[in-house]
Write a structure and sequence with these properties.
The protein is α+β, with helices and mostly antiparallel strands and about 325 residues long. It contains 11 helices and 14 strands.
Amino acid sequence: MKKIKIIPLAPQEFEVEQISENEANIMAYPFETGFAISLAHPLRRFLLSSSVGCAPIAIKIEGAKHEFDSVRGMLEDISDFILNLKDIRFKLLGGATEAEVSYSFTGPCDIKGGDLSNDEVEIVTPNSHLATLNEDSTLNFSIRIAQGIGYVASEDTYDELQEGYIALDAYFTPVRSATYKIENVLVEDNPNFERVIINIRTDGQISPLDAFRNSLEVMYAQLAVFNSEISVKAPATIERAEESPDLKKLTAHIDSLGLSARSFNCLDRSSIKLIGEIALMSTNDLKNVKNLGKKSYDEIVEKLQEFGYEVGGDLTDDVVSALKKKIEAL
C-alpha cells in the first residue's frame, strides 16, 4: 500500500543565481505538483505591480510653456526631451521620497543621463541620451522626482503644480521583467515534484533579490487580512475588544486610507503598518515622522478623520490594550 499523505511536502531548498548586477534567478524546490505555479504567478504580479521606484513627476524648462514647445538651440523639441527623460532612471539618495533638482547646461554638448547625477539623485542609466545642444545655446530646467509604484497618469502625479511646471506621466516600477518556469525534480523515486525558477531583471534602482523580498512583504501584508485569532483563548476584556468594530477598523492596513504615494511611503518607511498606530500617535509624534511634510501630515489627518478617528484621539482602554497587542505581534 502506498503511503498516504496528510500534509503536502514543504519546499526546503532555496537558491539565488546572480546573472548580472541587475538580473538574477531565484529558485525553490521541491513543490508538490501544481503548487509551484500557484505561488509563482502571484509573486510575478506583485513584482511587477508593487515594487517601489523613482520617476520624474513634473518638469519646468526655461523658455518652454508646454510640452509641444521648443527651446532655441536644442535639437529635440520638448515632447522628445520628455520622452528621453522618462528613459532615464533615477534613484533618490539619503532616504528621501521626493526631491526637486535643477540643472543648467551650455552648448555645444550632448547631455547624457550621467550628467544629471548630483548629491540628491543617482542615475542608474548613465548612458541614456537626453538632449543635444548647439553652440551658444543654454538649457535650464528643474525636475521633481518622487517615489511610487506602478504607473501614474500625469493628472494624478501632482496635486498643486507651481507655475511653469509640466506634469508628467510616471512609470515608477523598477522591475523591467519578471518571468518564471516550472521544472520537474526528483524526490526519492518520484519525478513529479516541481522546482520554480523566477527570473527577475531590474533597471538598477533596486537589486533583483531586494525586489523579490519586497514582493514577498507585500504578498504577506495582503494575506494578513485572512488571519484570525478567534480560537485563541484571551482574557475577557481582550475578547470584547477583539469583537468591537473599532478594533477591526484600527487593525486595517494603512492602504485602506487611500493615501497618496508620498504620504504612504513616509509612513511605510517608518514601519507604520496599521491605521491604529496613527490613531495612537500624538500630533507631535506624527509631525516628527521622517520626511513627512505639512501637506502629507494634513492629508493623513484628513483621511483618518474620514475613517472616523483623530490623531491622538480618545480610544477605550480595552481597544488600546488589544490594539497594542496586535501591533506588538507584527
